[in-house]
Amino acid sequence: MKIAVVGTGYVGLVTGTCFAETGNHVTCVDIDEKKVAKLKNKQMTIYEPGLDVLFERNIRQGRLEFTTDLKEGIKGAKIIFLALPTPPGEDGSADLKYVLKVAEDLGPILEEYTVVVDKSTVPVGTAEKVHAKIAENAKVDFDVVSNPEFLREGVAVDDFMKPDRVVVGAESEKAKKVMDQLYAPFVRQGNPVIFMDIRSAELTKYAANSFLATKITFMNEIANMCELLGADVDMVRKGVGTDSRIGKRFLFAGIGYGGSCFPKDVQALAKSASEVNYDFKILNSVMDINHNQKKKLIDPVKKFFGGDISGKTIAIWGLAFKPYTDDIREAPALENITTLLSLGAKVKAYDPEAMENVKEIFGDKIQFAEDEYDALKDADALMIMTEWPVFRTPEFDKMAESLKNKVVFDGRNLYDPSQMQELGFVYHSIGRKAITQ
Q1: Phi, psi for residue 191 in degrees, rounded to 5
Q2: Which of 406, 253, 399, 412 is nearest to 318 (CA)?
Q3: Which H or E run contains 5?
């Protein structure tokens, strides 16, 4: 099948590459000439484990191509995916200008029946707006379908190739048949393609991400209670997570969620609720709590240094919002760095993949280390912001030798407090008893 994917960001590039892997001919379209030139030259523009192998193979075998010309890119395509940015506006609503602009451009250049698919995360009613924009100048029949993505950064290739489910919002039987044929190779083991009305499909993505964000936030609130009551959040998590009605995932306490999806989608769903005069109290609380949770460790850091961290060097391990990605959007590390700098501290940071992205924000305001141990040299304390595997089993002796003070502020609960006490560290984590020596 001939497919076009408009937009070569995270979702677009993963989508296009994975569809090519199952034998489709995919043309990815983007207006960024420099990005397209890199992609044509087999240079990856995002970091995603396992994607590079599929990317290189499908370019080499002629199934994956790139262009800046929309008309050229969609020529002969039976399906056109819109994988465009929908950044939050000032009021929290999803900005649809990129989606609607491409929809407007598509109308006069469609040459035959085409299924246009909203792959971007968009609010309820977007498909109707896209349909109306295309219809203004379209001379052929077409359908607009909602097909939200559920990709987790770091494991996106597996998520796409072996999805838990595929959600498709479609009104016409013709469009349903095309989408069913497209996804058949991905659900051979029996996982469902769930067809529903378009508005329900649009809402499903927001509902899923907002529920997961709420689950994370609830557990962080339990962690905060644990600290006040002398309980251990790890024990509570095990007791709660073994209940089959709740499940084990998304129950790890920490310094809040970040990334490209949860913050934006929670905000957008809350905004959609307000537009129909519904006060979505849970989501409003989730946003407030998560904002405060991100800087949960700042007060313990200040307290350790007697209230003044001016001139202190704080080492930071982890800059990405989660491991296995270079994505720093809404990453807790960014807010912590900004706060530390405002308090007069110096920052020396290390992340396996995200440092180049952080340099674009902070430039030479912070120092970037060659590896995790280089970050500790002459540092007064360590803060852990991302749970990269390389940080889980460090050489504690080497840490102790490098740090001026044997103190760790762990935002991801990587270490056993009793072990840290035996090793002589001052250790602050989330929802567990602090080791103050």
Answers
A1: -65, 145
A2: 412
A3: strand 2-6
Which residue carries 């016409």 as its tokens?
172
What's the rounded Cα separation, in Å, for the pair 253 and 173? Answer: 45
Listed range (173-187, 254-268, 334-348) with the worst mean pLDDT: 254-268
- Label residue 182 by pLDDT band (50, 70, 90): very high
State CA 207 to chain mean position distance.
16
Are 120 and 103 within 8 A, CB to CB? no
In this prediction, residues 315-326 reach a mean pLDDT of 96
Cα–Cα distance for residue pair 100/286, rounded to 1 Å: 30
Using CA atoms, how far apart are residues 52 and 46, in angstroms rounded to an integer? 9
pLDDT at 426 over 80: yes
Q: Tokens 């308090």 — which residue? A: 343
Q: Average pLDDT for residues 147-159, to the nearest whole number?
A: 95
Tell me, rounded to whole angstroms, the distance of Cα 387 from its chain centroid: 15
H or E element at residue 204 = helix 198-229
Place of tokens 């007791």: 239
Gap between the Cα atoms of 39 and 381, Å rounded: 41
Burial of 12 per CB tally in 10 Å (0-12, 13-18, 19+): buried
The three-state secondary structure class of 13 is helix
Q: Which helix (H) or strand (E) covers residue 269, if one does?
A: helix 262-275
Instruction: Give the span between the Cα atoms of 208 and 318, in whole angstroms.
Output: 27
Sheet holding 407-410, edge to edge: 367-368, 346-350, 313-317, 381-384, 407-410, 426-428
Neighbours of 396 (CB within 10 A): 17
The token pair at 379 is 């540092």
Whole-structure pTM value = 0.91
pLDDT tens column, 188-238: 999 999 999 999 999 999 999 999 999 999 999 999 999 999 999 999 999
The answer to whether residue 261 is catalytic is yes
- Per-residue pLDDT band at 260 (split at 50, 70, 90): confident
Which among 18, 28, 226, 261 is annotated as catalytic?
Answer: 261
SS3 300: helix
